[in-house]
Amino acid sequence: MGKSRRAVQIVILLLILVLGGYAITTSVSGSNGKPKEGDKAPSFELLGLDGQVHTSEEYKGKAMVINFWGTWCEPCVKEMPALQAQADKWKDQGVQFVGINVGEDQMTVENFVRQVGVTFPIMLDRDKNSIREFGISPMPTTFFVSDTGKISTIHIGQLDLDTLDAQISQLAKQP
Questions:
Q1: Which domain of life is it from (predicted)?
Q2: Which of 30, 48, 71, 156 has the fewest C-beta atoms under 10 angstroms from its C-beta?
Q3: Domain extent at residue 12
Q4: Does one domain contain both 10 and 49?
């Protein structure tokens, strides 16, 4: 009887190890909760440069271009004029641009926005909660979100005018 009990214990131990290994592997190799294309976009509640708190709910029913950036990020700075040009082009067609600055103080961001001539809403992610929710690592990162709230495309890196225009055209055509 002792040998059969020991065999059962070994089988149970092996089962626990296999299941534990599977859980760890899927956790490490999976998305780690990071949103991906086709997922519902995470919500946000952030202070805007206008002094008001803004939420993603304000833009419900609109296609969105959500750009995570910083003034210290050279590609972010280089793509900002293209983002502004596209924001101007698409503003009357139901596409909302939102810039989310990551971790910088309001004065630095305001000075940059004024200098570059950015007019679309800029939010401040001072404590980096949104960057965690959206799973941002390199910047700039831009989320193209359909009017139903689903992530259409995630673009990591600098966007140029043509790529932006193509992505937004595709976004605007989605049902």
A1: Bacteria
A2: 30
A3: 1-30
A4: no
Same domain, 76 and 156: yes
Give the CA distances from residue 71 to residues 4, 76, 167, in Å, rounded to whole numbers and listed in that order.
Answer: 67, 7, 24
Of 94, 93, 34, the residue nearest 59 (C-alpha): 94
Separation between Cα atoms, residue 53 and residue 123, nearest integer Å: 9
Strand order in the sheet with 95-102: 53-55, 45-48, 122-125, 95-102, 63-69, 141-145, 151-156
pLDDT in tens, 3-24: 778 877 776 766 676 565 555 5
Is the dihedral angle over the CA atoms 27, 101, 81, 143 positive or is it negative? Answer: positive
Whether residues 93 and 118 fall in one domain? yes
- pTM score: 0.79
Q: What is the CATH classification number for the domain harbouring 86? A: 3.40.30.10
Query: Contact at 8 Å (CB) between 140 and 76?
Result: yes
Phi–psi pair at 95, nearest 5 degrees:
-110, 125
For 93, the enclosing helix (H) or strand (E) is none
Residue bearing tokens 């929710």 = 133
87 and 158 part of one domain: yes
Task: Give the three-state DSSP class for 129.
Answer: helix
Q: What is the pLDDT of residues 117-148, one digit of tens each?
A: 999 999 999 989 999 999 998 999 999 999 99
